[in-house]
């Protein structure tokens, strides 16, 4: 009788031991993934792609926003790196491509400059799309308490000194188009507003106007903004995004959109890119990813599709 009881006790203990082992196995299978597993997953994603370096030519006004976007992109696309992105005026970017410089993506601040690049065969026409929109504003030094609000008509009184971009700078072209509507810029072809190219073409296009002798031109919209920040001039014509990018200035007026051509930023793959698939993937991310959209908004850019 005792032998039978002992046998039953051993059997019960064995059952409990088996159940405990199974429970531990279950817990083990549900344990959180270790850091080494996460690292392995990331490594696998990288291994699934060939490493690629993308070269971007972008309008000067995009410098800070694009740099942040690239950092965000590479954080999730570890196989992608970016070469030293070239931020220049749209005209200078075209000149670099004409001289044989290689890029994968061109983002211009001017429809006409992108038209020029396309006609010259620097870009793939079927990849082109309008990426951003922007506004043209009048700014003065953040420390200037004497100017709080300005209109184009105020500029036309000749009361203020002004800074605009030169012929190679789209922001300067837009500014000149607007200034022509109030008699402060003389288009060599006699056109005004959005019909004008906004280029002096070697003439003193401000001579004989209220701004004669009162205009400073410079080679980039960033430099133009700095003229206002330093107090070199009373008013500078820049993009809204430049106020976010540089600081040190305050907006005292917005230039009416109907006085100049629409301010758009076209983007396209270059005709010489060897990384078309990865370059297009980056552009798609720029316009579709919520994190990217937050970055553009933070720096004062509006996606053209919104």
Describe the structure.
The chain has 306 residues and is an alpha/beta fold. The protein is 42% helix and 18% strand. The chain contains eleven helices and 13 strands. It has helices spanning 2-29, 35-47, 63-76, 90-98, 111-119, 152-155, 170-180, 221-230, 240-246, 276-288, 290-298; strands at residues 52-54, 56-59, 80-82, 86-88, 105-107, 129-133, 136-141, 162-165, 215-218, 235-239, 249-254, 264-269, 302-303. The strands form three sheets. It has a six-stranded mixed sheet with strand order 4-2-5-12-6-13. Strands 9-8-10-7-11 form a five-stranded mixed sheet, with helices on both faces. The chain is globular.
Brief write-up:
With 306 residues, the protein is of the alpha/beta class.
Main sheet: strands, sense, barrel: 6 strands, mixed
Q: Note poorly predicted spans.
A: 1-42
First-last Cα distance: 87 Å
Question: What is the radius of gyration computed over CA atoms, rounded to a whole number of angstroms?
Answer: 30 Å
How are the SSEs ordered, and which strands pair?
Layout: H1 2-29, H2 35-47, E1 52-54, E2 56-59, H3 63-76, E3 80-82, E4 86-88, H4 90-98, E5 105-107, H5 111-119, E6 129-133, E7 136-141, H6 152-155, E8 162-165, H7 170-180, E9 215-218, H8 221-230, E10 235-239, H9 240-246, E11 249-254, E12 264-269, H10 276-288, H11 290-298, E13 302-303
Parallel strand pairs: 1-3, 2-4, 2-5, 8-9, 8-10
Antiparallel strand pairs: 5-12, 6-12, 6-13, 7-10, 7-11
């Amino acid at each position: 009788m005792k032998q039978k009881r002992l046998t039953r006790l051993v059997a019960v203990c064995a059952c409990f031991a088996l159940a405990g082992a199974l429970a531990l196995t279950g817990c083990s299978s549900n344990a959180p993934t270790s850091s080494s597993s996460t690292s392995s997953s990331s490594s696998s994603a990288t291994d699934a792609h060939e490493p690629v370096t993308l070269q971007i030519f972008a309008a000067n006004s995009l410098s800070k926003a694009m740099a942040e976007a690239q950092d965000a992109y590479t954080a999730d696309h570890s196989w992608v790196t970016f070469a030293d992105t070239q931020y220049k005026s749209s005209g200078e970017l075209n000149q670099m491509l004409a001289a044989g410089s290689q890029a994968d993506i061109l983002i211009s601040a001017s429809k006409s400059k992108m038209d020029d690049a396309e006609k010259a065969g620097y870009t793939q026409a079927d990849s082109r799309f309008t990426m951003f929109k922007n506004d043209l504003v009048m700014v003065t030094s953040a420390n200037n308490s004497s100017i709080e609000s300005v209109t184009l008509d105020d500029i036309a009184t000749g009361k203020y000194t002004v800074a605009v971009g030169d012929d190679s700078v789209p922001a300067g072209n837009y500014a000149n188009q607007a200034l022509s509507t109030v008699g402060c810029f003389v288009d060599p072809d006699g056109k005004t507003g959005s019909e004008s190219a906004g280029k002096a073409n070697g003439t003193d296009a401000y001579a004989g106007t209220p701004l004669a002798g009162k205009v400073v031109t410079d080679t980039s919209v960033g430099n133009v903004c700095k003229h206002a920040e330093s107090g070199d001039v009373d008013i500078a014509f820049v993009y809204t995004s430049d106020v976010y990018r540089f600081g040190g200035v305050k907006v005292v007026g917005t230039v009416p959109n109907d006085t100049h051509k629409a301010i758009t930023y076209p983007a396209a793959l270059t005709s010489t890119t060897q990384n078309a698939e990865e370059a297009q993937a980056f552009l798609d991310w720029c316009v579709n990813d919520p994190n990217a959209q937050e970055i553009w908004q933070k720096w004062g850019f509006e996606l053209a599709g919104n």
